[in-house]
Amino acid sequence: MSVVRPDAEGLRRAVEVLRADSVVAFPTETVYGLGANAFSEKAVSEIYRLKNRPAWNPLIVHVANVEAARALAETWPGAADELAAQFWPGPLTLVVPRARHLAGVGASNDTIAIRIPAHEVALRLLEASGLPLAAPSANRSEGISPTTAEHVLRSLPDVPLVLDGGPASWGIESTVLDLTAETPRLLRPGALPLRTIREVVGSISLPDEGPVDGAVRPSPGMSRRHYAPRATLLLVKDLDQTGLSGPVGVLAYEGAGVEGAEILSSDPREYAADLYAALHRLDDAGVATILALEPPQTEDWLAVRDRLGRAAAK
Ligand code: AMP
Ligand code: MG
C-alpha cells in the first residue's frame, strides 16, 4: 500500500489503479472513500472483500456532474433537480430509480444512490478517470469511519493506493434521501441537516415514521452495530457509572460540566467533525469502555445520535 499526495502524479497513479479494476482510497468532504469503477463487477467486489462488507449493503456512486448522475437514473425526479441545484457538490446522497441497462451496485434492487462530492481531490479523480466511482467509507465494515489517510491505513492496510488530502472537513457521512416515493424519505441522517433540505423539498418522512423533533426510533436498520470503536461504547445520561472494569474513556461536549477526556464542541456540526477522530484516539489510548454522554434530543443532533447509537449497539 502507498499513501501519495494528490498531485498530478498521484492522480495519474490512482486512475491507472482504477482502470485496472482495483480500488483507491480518496478524500471526500464527509469521510475517506474506498473507490472503484461502479461499472466493473470485479472492482466492486474488491470493495466488499476488503471491507468485509455484507453483500446486501449497497454502495453510493460518486459522479463529477449532474449529467453523469442522470445517466445512471431511469427517471430523474423534479425534487432531484432542485436538490442537486441547491446542494451538489455536497454531502447529500439521492436514491433514484436505477437505469435499466445498469447492474445493481452491489445489491439487487431497482434503485441507485448517487452524489457529487464537494472535495477538489475527489472531483479531480472523477474527472481524470471518467468513471462513476462506487465508494463506501474506507474502513472495515462496522468500524469507525476514516477522516484521515492515517485512519485508512490502519483499518485497511491492503488498499493498494491512498490519496492523502488531509482531514475531512465534515467528518461524518452524507445524508441519504430516497426520492422514489411521493414524499422524500430519510434513509440515513448525515452531514446535511434536515432543516436545510426541507427548505427545498418541504416535508420529509423519517425512518419508522419517527417524530419530527428528530428523536430516533429504533428500527432494524438503525440499531445495527456500525461506526463502532474496539472499546465498548456506553451511551449514558450520567457519567457517574459504577462497576466498570478496566480503563474508561469519556466522550462529552462543552458546557456539560465534564472535564478531561475527549471534550468536543457543543455545536453539532463541529462535534460531528471531531467524533470519529475522538473515537480513534480513545481506542489508541487502550480504554476498555467509552462513556459517551448523550447529546440533546433535538433534530440538530440527529446524525450524531444515530452514529453514537449504532456505535453502542451490541
Ligand atoms: P456507506 O457506503 O457505508 O456510507 O453507506 C451507504 C448508505 O447508502 C447505506 O446506508 C446504504 O444502505 C445506502 N444506499 C446505498 N445505495 C442505496 C440504494 N440503492 N437504496 C437505498 N439505500 C442505499
Ligand atoms: Mg461506512
Question: What descriptors fit this protein?
Answer:
314 residues; alpha/beta; DHBP synthase; 10-stranded mixed sheet; 4-stranded parallel sheet; 10 helices; 14 strands; globular; binds adenosine monophosphate; binds magnesium ion; nucleotidyltransferase; tRNA binding
Report on this structure:
Residues 8-192 form the YrdC-like domain. InterPro entries: DHBP_synth_RibB-like_a/b_dom, Sua5-like_dom, Sua5/YwlC_C, Sua5_C, T(6)A37_SUA5, TC-AMP_synthase_SUA5. Belongs to the SUA5 family. By secondary structure, the chain is α/β, with parallel strands linked by helices. It folds into 2 domains: 2-201, DHBP synthase; 232-312, no CATH class. It contains 10 helices and 14 strands. The chain has helices spanning 8-19, 41-51, 66-71, 78-87, 120-129, 149-155, 194-201, 220-223, 268-284, 302-312; strands at 2-4, 24-26, 33-37, 60-62, 92-97, 111-115, 133-134, 161-163, 175-178, 185-188, 232-236, 248-253, 262-264, 289-293. A 10-stranded mixed beta sheet has the order 1-8-2-3-7-4-6-5-9-10, sandwiched between helices. Strands 11-14-12-13 form a 4-stranded parallel beta sheet, covered by helices on one side. α1 crosses α5. The longest helix has 17 residues, at 268-284. The two termini are 32 Å apart. Magnesium ion binds next to loops.
List the helices and strands and how they pair.
Blueprint: E1 2-4, H1 8-19, E2 24-26, E3 33-37, H2 41-51, E4 60-62, H3 66-71, H4 78-87, E5 92-97, E6 111-115, H5 120-129, E7 133-134, H6 149-155, E8 161-163, E9 175-178, E10 185-188, H7 194-201, H8 220-223, E11 232-236, E12 248-253, E13 262-264, H9 268-284, E14 289-293, H10 302-312
Parallel strand pairs: 1-8, 2-8, 4-6, 5-9, 11-14, 12-13, 12-14
Antiparallel strand pairs: 2-3, 3-7, 4-7, 5-6, 9-10
This protein binds adenosine monophosphate and magnesium ion (MG).
Adenosine monophosphate binds at residues 57-60, 95, 109, 111-113, 136-137, 173, 176, 187-188.
